[in-house]
Design a protein that fits this description.
109 residues; 19% strand; single chain
C-alpha cells in the first residue's frame, strides 16, 4: 500500500510540471490558419510575429480608427499596425499594451 501511494505521488510530481509546461508554451499558428479568420466576426491577425484574435475587440466597437481594423483580419497586419493607414503613424504604447490581451500564439513559417 505504501509503495502504491509513493508511485502516485511520483506520477503527480512529474505530471503537474509537464502539464504546466505544455499549457504555457506558445501555440504555433501558420499564416494559412490566420487567413481562415478574415471577417469582423472571426478576426485573427499577425503582428510582429505574434497572432492575435481581435474578434472581441472589433465587437466592442472601441477601435478609434473604426472599420480600418478590418483590413488586418486574416493577414500579417504588421505594416498596418506599425504605420496606421489614416496617418502613417505607429500605434500608441497604450494600444500595444492592450493588444497583448488578445494574444493567441506565435506565427510559424
Amino acid at each position: 500500500m505504501k509503495k502504491g501511494v509513493l508511485i502516485v505521488i511520483c506520477i503527480v510530481l512529474v505530471t503537474i510540471p509537464l502539464v504546466w509546461f505544455i499549457q504555457s508554451s506558445p501555440k504555433k499558428i501558420t499564416l494559412n490558419k490566420v487567413a481562415l479568420h478574415a471577417t469582423a466576426t472571426d478576426c485573427w491577425m499577425a503582428i510582429n510575429g505574434n497572432v492575435y484574435d481581435a474578434t472581441a475587440y472589433i465587437a466592442s466597437r472601441e477601435h478609434p480608427g473604426g472599420a480600418e481594423i478590418l483590413k488586418g483580419c486574416g493577414t500579417d497586419a504588421t505594416s498596418l499596425y506599425d504605420a496606421r493607414p489614416a496617418d502613417g503613424k505607429p500605434h500608441s504604447a497604450n494600444a500595444r499594451e492592450e493588444l497583448q490581451q488578445y494574444y493567441i500564439g506565435t506565427l510559424s513559417q
